[in-house]
Amino acid sequence: MPEAALHVGSGKVRELYALDDDRLLLVASDRISTFDVVLPTEIPDKGRVLTGLSAFWFARTHDICANHLLALRADGRSTECRRLEMLPIECVVRGYLSGSGWKDYTSTGAVCGHVLPAGLTESSELPEPIFTPATKATTGHDENIDRERAAELVGAELFDEVERVSIALYRFAAEHARARGIVIADTKFEFGLDDGTLVLGDEALTPDSSRFWPADEYRPGGAQPSFDKQYARDYCESLGWDKTDPGPELPEEVVAGTRARYVEAFERLTAIGFDEYLADPGAVNR
Length: 286
Ligand SMILES: Nc1ncnc2c1ncn2[C@@H]1O[C@H](COP(=O)(O)OP(=O)(O)OP(=O)(O)O)[C@@H](O)[C@H]1O
Ligand SMILES: [Mg+2]
Prior knowledge:
By secondary structure, the protein is of the alpha+beta class. Helix 1 packs parallel to helix 6 and helix 3 crosses helix 4. The strands form 4 sheets. Strands 8, 9, 12, 13, 14, 15 and 16 form a 7-stranded antiparallel beta sheet that branches. Strands 1-2-3-7-6 form a 5-stranded antiparallel beta sheet. The chain contains 7 helices and 16 strands. The structure holds adenosine-5'-triphosphate and magnesium ion (MG).
């Protein structure tokens, strides 16, 4: 654990320590949450997959937007970061219709104020990626909001900037991933301000913050197989769990299956063996 660092917070997945006034140590645990409930069972190495993949993307996207990463530690799960004043919205970009986007579309024909063509099916590719922000709920589930509400929360000028940057990041990553056999259906970014400058924070373009689908099995018209936590979610739902705390224990085969999917996403996207990453996390920066 971090030497003289002060523990300043726990998220569902990460522990946050203050290194000094300007820097945080973010430690990604192996915890998994489904439907916003942390499950009692951990997925070995999941935190390392998230940390390594985020660092991989941070190294490749700083021309699009500055990010908070200062240093990746040798344990492969801890990062030293610039401490940001986080914006109160989750910056979601959707290239495909799934999850709450699909649900909103079926009831209103629109997602977060974006009116979409009629006749789309579940998992359809959208004509253009859309920015669909959500509130950061301190308790309960995030809620999709339209651009007016989001612009009220962060200011109109900053809203325009986060929309533009989020879509540019998504386009870059979706193109990279597509060439490696993965469809990034949607993803969520969290930005903050550092002395007034917009900086990408948190994790980025990971299987926890995105929907990753195997491109060769993509068939619009229903739900898709995935490289993210959908597999664990499906198991939890199959039990008839009411999605309130405490969540169910995961059996060994679901733990192994989830771990394998996370590792496969890492290896496909980075073209780096996960063992190679464990031996030398710096591999993701080359
Ligand atoms: N550079 C940064 N400066 C300050 N806070 C950050 C930074 N990067 C990420 N965070 C915050 O650290 C936390 C990361 O923890 P984690 O991902 O476990 O949280 P979460 O479960 O997604 O959300 P919550 O914090 O609501 O539980 C988030 O609250 C995120 O907004
Ligand atoms: Mg998080």
